[in-house]
Amino acid sequence: MWNTAAVASDVNPNLPLVRRLEAVGFRAWPAADIRYDGSWQLRMTAGHPSRRANSLVPLDPRDTRDISGRLEKARDAFAKAGRRFAIKETPLCPAPLIALLEQLGWTAEGETSVQVANISAMELGNGQDHLPSHDIERFVDACLAVEPDKGASRDALVRLFGAIEPDAGLFFIEDEAEGPRAVALCIHDNDLAGIQQVAVAKHLRRQGLATEILSSALLWAKLRGARQAWLQVEASNEPAKALYRGFGFKEAYRYRYWVKD
Fold this sequence. Notes:
The chain is built from 7 helices and 10 strands. The protein has helices spanning 15-28, 67-81, 95-103, 136-146, 154-162, 209-223, 238-245, and strands at residues 33-37, 40-44, 55-58, 86-89, 107-118, 167-175, 179-189, 192-200, 228-234, 250-259. The strands form 2 sheets. Strands 4-10-5-9-8-7-6 form a 7-stranded mixed beta sheet, sandwiched between helices. The chain has a 3-stranded antiparallel beta sheet with strand order 1-2-3, covered by helices on one side. The chain starts with 14 loop residues before the first helix and ends with a strand.
C-alpha cells in the first residue's frame, strides 16, 4: 500500500510492477554516476537538471536501517558532487524516511504519474508514418529546437542518450522551412516500450503532431515485440494525460520529489 505520507493516487500500487517500471526507467534515463547504500540508489549526472538523473531513490519500503545517518551521508555525497539533493518518493519509499523528511522541514514538489497501456489493444495501423533515426546528435538538436528552455546542455543530452543500453528509437518530425516540429524517444526493453521525451513546438501544439509521432513510436516498438508501453507525465498536465488516455494509458502509480534548500 502507498504509505500515508505519500502523494495521493487513485490506485493501490502493484509493488512488483513499480519495481519493474523503476528499473526500466533507470535504463531508459541513465545517470552518469550511480552508487548504492543498501537499497537506496544515488543517481548523479553533471550538466543535466533532470531529477530523474539527479536524486536519491529508495527501492525497498522495509529498508529502514539508520535512516538519519544514511540521509546525511547521501546529502554529503551530492554536495561534494555539486548536485542539488532531492529524494524520489515512490510507493517503494520507506514511510519512516518520509516522516523524518517532514520533521526536518523538507518539502514535496510536484507529482508525476507513471502510466501503462496494452500495445496490442491500440489502433496503430499497419504502416509507419515516421521511421526512427539512430543519429543521436541530430535528435538532440531537434529536442533543443522544440524545447529550448529545458535547461540541459547539448553535451549532457548527447551523453545521456548515448548511454541508453536498450534499443532506442529516435523519432522527430521536421519541416524543411521551419525545422523540427515534434520529437519522441521510444525505448524497447524486452516486452516493454518506454515513451520518453515527447514534445511538440509551442506554436504547433493541438494540431495532431503528438498523436502522429507517438503512433509511429508505439508501432515501431510493437513490431519489435513489445507488449506493454509505459510513460511518465506530470500529474497536472491535463492535455498530455488526455492524449495518453486516447491510446489506452492508465495510471500505475505516482511519484514526487522531496527537497530542502
